[in-house]
Amino acid sequence: xxxxEKGLASQKYKSEDAKFDADVELDAYKFLGAxxxxxxxxxxxxxxxQDDIAKDIIERSFKEDLEETFGGGNxxxxxxxxxxVTLLLERGANRTVNNAKGFQPVDLSxxxxxxxxxxxxx
Length: 122
Known about the structure:
The protein is mostly helical and 122 residues long. It is built from six helices and no strands.
């Protein structure tokens, strides 16, 4: 469906199911903000841990769609794990976007491998 209607990837939706996992909820509120608001399918897929779906969306999205924000100015890079971040950076996602709390995606990770990705792919 995304191949035929690429605009679907940038449409935003609200859902009561969109929540941070309980084990990261406090950190998420601190660094991303408590308000999620309307999100793109990519944001939902990453938030829900659906990495295969997220990868499909990334591969079929325009670069500009990867820059869509949710909640407090967060992008998919603010949410992503190593595989997702790698793919987003390869597709040209902006690594320097500050969210409303002043954090760039690299600031949100304590994973050395992930932090290295942000530096090595510039």
